[in-house]
Amino acid sequence: MNLLPPPADLTRAFLAGDAQYDGVFYAGITTTGIFCRPSCPARKPRPEHLEFFATPAQAVTAGYRACRRCDPTGAIGLPPAWVAPLLERIEREPAARVTQTDLEELGIDPTRARRWFLRHHGLTFSEYARSRRLQSAQEKLQAGVVLDDVALGTGWDSHSGFREAYGREFGGPPGSRRQGGAIVTRVVASPLGPLRLAATSAGICLVEFHDPARLEAQRQALQRWLGLPVLPGNHPHLDRLESELGEYFAGTRRDFTVPLVAPGTGFQTLVWDALCKIPYGETRSYAALAASVGRPKAQRAVGLANGNNRIAIVIPCHRVVNTGGALGGYGGGVWRKHWLLELERPTAA
Fold first, then answer.
1. In the chain, which ranges are continuous DSSP H helix?
2. How far apart are CA 343 and CA 154, in angstroms?
3. Residue 39 and residue 18: Cα distance in Å, rounded?
């Protein structure tokens, strides 16, 4: 489904370099004959020199060639080709240290790596690698590995260095946190731009449209809600959700089965439970939603609870509209709400 946002939104997003629109549209620059993704770091042209497309194929058919800086034909939400070998190395040996010399041997400029990881994970490369090592250490602790073996087997030169790093991240000494855990995050591709997912051992706790400008605020909020450190990495719940989201966007899945972790007030929980009961392909007004939770006069409070939903799409707050059918607001942008409702409408019962 190629449903583009209004041209004014496209122009604004492209000129601002808004990465939330990566994969949503592509911009052809008439003066150079190239096309880019919205987040392209190259100098932006004047608005009158832009032409918009829903897919790279449309841009190529119109006579444009792909930009070499932003690689608009690459997968959205997935790392570019130059980063992939580095991530593969870290995932293959998360406990191993990766030095600047290692980066240079891989043909990667350390400054470029630093900038990419900051933009996509809110961490420098060294911070990202250390976080993966700490997550590996925590997994070993939970598996019952002796503390000394964990410390020296995950890349630290000394017990004291490991304890200090672990304490900063997990808020306590390693011995006291064997049964603890972490919030594990991942960025995945979607037709609406990259999605940031997060999970704990209990279930999915975050699905939001990826916004590099909000990464630090988002990390702090997750820590405050759940009292756990936030680390990038892999998790079975994330694997399962990524698969189910792919099926949803392909139009072959109506309901999600991943477990959820959505702490909130009693009223918020009532509203979020009611959202999950709105059938695929249907909508409810704020008034109807308020009535369904036994608070018919609390439409404004229902709207606030709806807006505080941190698990977009899976808890389908996009299915709530104004009385009369107007779409109302949506944290990811009204155009995304429209897109999701259009996706569901063709197969509605």
1. 7-16, 56-61, 84-92, 100-105, 110-121, 125-142, 147-153, 159-170, 215-226, 236-249, 266-276, 286-292, 299-307, 334-344
2. 45
3. 5
Told to judge if 317 belongs to the known catalytic residues of this protein, a careful annotator would answer yes
β pairing state of 26-29 and 50-53: antiparallel
* Closest of 153, 155, 131 to residue 143, by C-alpha: 153
Indicate which residue of 40, 67, 70, 317 is catalytic. Answer: 317
pLDDT in tens, 289-322: 999 999 999 999 999 999 999 999 999 999 999 8
Q: How many residues can be counted in the chain?
A: 349
Selection from 99, 88, 173, 176 nearest residue 130 by Cα: 99
> Quick check: 260 and 314 in contact, CB under 8 A?
yes
Q: Is the pLDDT of residue 75 over 80?
A: no
**pLDDT at position 19 over 70:** yes
Residue for token pair 């975050």 = 206
Are 128 and 232 spatial neighbours (Cβ–Cβ below 8 Å)?
Answer: yes
